[in-house]
Amino acid sequence: MTADEPGADAAPTTDAASTTGAASTTGAASTTGTAATTGGTGPRQAWATLPWLVRTAVLWSACLVVIIAGLYLLGRIAVLLAPLAIALAATIFLTALLDPVLLRLRRLRLPAAPAALLTVLLLLGILVGVGALVWNLTASQFDQLSQELTQGLDRSRDFVTSTLPVSDAQLDKLIDQAREGLSGSSPDPVSGARTATEVLGSALLALVLLFFLLKDGRSMWHWVLSRMTGPNRSVVAEAGRGGWQTLGAYSRGTMLIAAIDAIGIGLALVLLGVPLALPLALITFLGGFVPIIGATVAGAVAVLVALAANGPTTALLTLAAVVAVQQIEGNLLEPLVMKRQVRLHPAVILVAVTAGTLIAGIAGAFVSVPITAVLWRVIDTVLRHRSTPDTPALS
Predict the structure, then answer these.
(1) 293-310 helix and 346-386 helix, angle to the nearest 10 degrees
(2) What is the pTM of this model?
(3) Distance of CA 243 to the CA centre of its chain
(4) pLDDT, tens digit (0-9, with 9 covering 90-100), for 231-274
(5) φ/ψ (deg, to 5) at 390
(6) Which of 109, 265, 268, 319 has its CA 20 to 30 A from that of 223?
(7) Quick count: other Cβ atoms within 10 Å of Cβ 118?
(8) What is the C-alpha separation between 290 and 160, in angstroms, rounded?
């Protein structure tokens, strides 16, 4: 063995040691980097390990919470600005109702301003004339209507206590609580004067806004569309057109159906000899603007008056007449008049009316269903537009 051989053997050993150290260093570094990377993506891995049903429920719940919070904030703002909100709602509703009249006047080559002014004056003439006629015919009968309702409630209480295991004391307690609530909610003179001033101001504001919307509404809408670019413009145009058609169909159809219900039930009350037929027909007409709940309340009032005035037989016949008219209205007139533009499920209508009543009282009950119908039509239009084949797929 020569002296060079040990050195030759030592060199590979040193290289192996350095290689082992480098490998250890690299392994440690890679392990540290992996640990750091794993620590950085921990929430993502935890989210990915959840079942798809849980992830879907979490996402939909978050979206639902955001939507409900937004609607609640809008409702609270509308309540704080109640006179303005009521004026805007009445203006949009009346604009959709009177739009065909305006279009007919424009076809007669009238300018926009005179046509809008004539439309507003026509509305005022109808409202003042009908209001004065109804007031002269029914103003003296509302006190009698209240007495008849009280007697009907008393007869209903006697019937309930004689057929059901409910005592007179329990029913009297419930009736007293209801009467206290009604008397407690009656306004004092100061708040009554303030409410009357707000109503008058809202009515004047609604008339002024109605004139401007009839005159310049289409140019305002074209101005909004001109600010849109790309595919969003066609989506907004189609959704806005669909929502406006839905609101117009709802306003005209609801007024026609309410009038037919009032005439049908009023004639039935006259034929049955029930007193106060005209005030009850008026209540039926107003109740027609609150779907399902309004018709139910108006029918109950008619039955109670018939019970107090003519006894249980007439009350049963009145109930049969009310149910028959409402069934004809719901199964024949509403599909014929409304078509398919304002078809909402009864459960959706009940939820909308309840939510509107809780948020804004009677005014909320009146406007909740048209708002829901318009929103549904807009959302349905946007979804159908996005599902068309021409729409480019998202990458």
Answers:
(1) 160
(2) 0.66
(3) 13
(4) 778 888 888 888 898 888 888 888 888 888 899 999 999 999 88
(5) -70, -20
(6) 109
(7) 15
(8) 29
